[in-house]
Each structure stands twice: as structure tokens, then as C-alpha cells.
Amino acid sequence: MPGPVLEFWYDFASTYSYLAAMRIEAAAEEAGVKVHWRPFLLGPIFAAQGWTTSPFNLFPDKGRYMWRDMEREAARLGVPFCRPDPFPQNSLLAARVALVGLDQGWTPAFTKAVFAAEFGKSRNISDPAALSIVLTDLGLDAGAVMEQAQAEANKARLRRIGEEAQLRGIFGAPCFVAEDRELFWGNDRLERALDWATARARHSDVPV
Amino acid sequence: MPGPVLEFWYDFASTYSYLAAMRIEAAAEEAGVKVHWRPFLLGPIFAAQGWTTSPFNLFPDKGRYMWRDMEREAARLGVPFCRPDPFPQNSLLAARVALVGLDQGWTPAFTKAVFAAEFGKSRNISDPAALSIVLTDLGLDAGAVMEQAQAEANKARLRRIGEEAQLRGIFGAPCFVAEDRELFWGNDRLERALDWATARARHSDVPV
Fold it and tell me: What's the pLDDT at B201?
């Protein structure tokens, strides 16, 4: 019988997606939930709302608060944190590369390494060289992966995932989506999403 | 020696302020923190960002999510929840009345009763009659309180509090502000804010 599953929707430019990525595996394992990693781009979703950049840039008080809150939350979780420059980073290439890993199983490791480079070491993740270093460190053939990432079929796949995000009502990141499409937004909602996924799996065990 | 203090900034129209108001007293008592209630108006702060209504109305996906999240969170906290019509409610009069109670000590009870009427019984809180019922139920002279609420000095006091909110970088509600001006935004951050307030009070016990 299949166990509970939760989709983890994240954008590599998103600060709170970083926090969620660093802790979701341990939390999901403890809850007995399988995680499906869903890298996507927030840019088109923001653009559809008339935003040309991150709301944290558009609304300065909200932005100032977020940077301070991230400092506190990163310290609480015991992960490093520095402010990327520029913010937001262009996450297109990283998202394309992460998609390639979905079929090969290395997307979680790649995602955590990219987030750690971006928010822990101030690396610019739009730089193909920075991503190649991450891939090589994971024992992968960076050149081959980059080629697959930039193939037309993979670009189209990322666009389809973006359309799926909009259909599901995703408006920010991170989001967690249960099998019944129940949506949870924000790193703060991870535990509630895991609870939902496990409760739903229990109920679906009951013959109708 | 004075114990830890936390300011609770809330707008009567704000959904998550309702949740925070219903639980802050018990949580603060357990943490040994004194709460200063700070009713204020988000409207001028939103207007300064170019918003003419709640962001939950301006951004439909965000709004749809909030209503669903409020349903879940209210159920979790065991408080009733219905969607006010119109949303947001005009919270000007309720905020003015709540200010009157600050000097007389009934602001917490009034605030909880107004939120319960608004989000539990679909009462329109811009209606003076609805607020008078709340005041009368609290054993107060509703007519006298209403007169004080609408006095010029009290109106000016609410405007000053609004200016103070902007100076403190408050951009949404609820917010919690510690004595050192550390800001926490959202019902989800209440526990962190209480932790901060108690830790700070411990440190200030140490002679410098």
C-alpha cells in the first residue's frame, strides 16, 4: 500500500524555500511521508500579479522584516545565512538542472547544495560555473547534465510545471501540496502539511 | 523588577489578528510576559504601498489560500470562523473604542468580543450598534464610551499610534514588538516573540 506523499514546490531564489529545503527530508522521514521535489519559477507568477521583482524588493518594510526574520530563523535551524547579491537571484538555470535530476534521483542533494552555495557562501547561482561545481561535487558529469538542462524538451518541461503551479493556485514559495491538492504555503506550514498528508493516507486506508 | 513585556499590534479587520487575539493571553501568561494591546489601522499603511484594499482582495490566489488556511487554523485552535461580508470590515470605530479601554483596562475583553462577533457571528463591526452591544455585555456605559471614542483627542491618539506603527516598520497584522523594538509578524510568530521577550528580560537583569 503506498504511503503518504507530499509535493515540495520551491524556487531557488526564494529565501524561505532555502529553510524548507534544509529541513524537509528529516521532518518528512520522521512523519513517514515521501517527498516529491518540484522546482519551479515564481517569476511568471509574480509577473501575472503585475510584479516585476520580488515583493520583498517592491515593499521595503516587508523586505527589511524578511531579512531580519531569515537571520533569526536560520540561526534557530542552525544553517548559515547571508544575503544574496543581487536579490532575487536568477533561478532559471538552477531550476532546469534540478529537473534533470528528478529522473536520476539527485535533485534533493543538488537542491540543498545550490541553496547552501547561494545563502551560505554568497555564490551567484545564475552562473553556470557555480552550478557545474555543485554537479561535479555530487560526482556527476556537469557538462552532460548542463546539456540536458538546456535541451528544448527540458525547457518545455519547466514551463509545463510553471503552468501546473498556477493551476494549483500557488502564489509563493515554498508550497507543500498533498495528494488531494490541499495547499500549504510557507516554511512555517511544513509540519501542518505533513500532518495533513499522513491523516489523509490513514483515511484512504479505510475501505469506502 | 519589571518582567518582560510584549506589544501586540492588531487591526480589527485582520483575519490572523483574530487568531492571535484569541490565544495571546494564555500563551503570554504561560511565558510570564505582560501584553500591551495596540489596536491600530492597517489601511493607511496599505495605502502608502499603493494598495486600496486588503492584499487578500488584490491578489486572488493569495486570498483564496488565506480563507482556506484560516478555516484550518481556526479549527486547530478551536475557535469559530466565518468569512466577514464585506471583507475587510471598516475597523475605524472599533479601533477608536478599543483605545478608550486602554486606560480603563477593558481593551482585551472588548477586542476578543469584537473579533468573536465579526469572525464567529458575521456581525458588521463598522455598525455602532454592534459595538454598543459588545460594550453593554461588558457592563460598560456604551453611550459614554462611544462619545469618548469619537472625541477629537481620541481620534488624534489613533492617528499617532498609526504613525508609530509606520515608524516601527509595521507592514501587516498582527505584529508583536519587544521592548528593544524587535519585530515579529504574524500569528505564527507569537511563540518566537514571547521567547524573545523573556530572553531579553533575563539579560537585562544582568548589571552592565
Answer: 83
Q: What is the mean pLDDT of each run of 10 residues along chain B (208 residues)?
A: 90 98 98 98 91 89 96 97 96 98 96 98 97 98 98 98 95 97 98 96 62
ipTM over 0.95: no
Tell me the fold of B5-205: Glutaredoxin (3.40.30)
A169 → closest Cβ in B64, B72, B184: B64
Kindly write down the DSSP assignment for every residue of A58-95, as one continuous string.
HSHHHHHHHHHHHHHHHHHHT------SSSS---HHHH
Examine the pLDDT at A62 and tell me if it is beyond 50: yes
The contacts found for A19-23 with CB under 8 angstroms, 24 or more apart, are A19/A70, A19/A73, A19/A74, A19/A77, A19/A79, A19/A187, A20/A174, A20/A187, A20/A190, A21/A111, A21/A112, A21/A115, A21/A174, A22/A77, A22/A79, A22/A112, A22/A115, A22/A116, A23/A77, A23/A190
Are the CB atoms for B125 and B117 separated by under 8 Å?
yes
Active site residue A14: yes
Sequence spans of domains, chain B: 5-205
Cβ–Cβ gap A171/B49 under 8 Å: no
pLDDT-above-70 percentage for chain A: 97
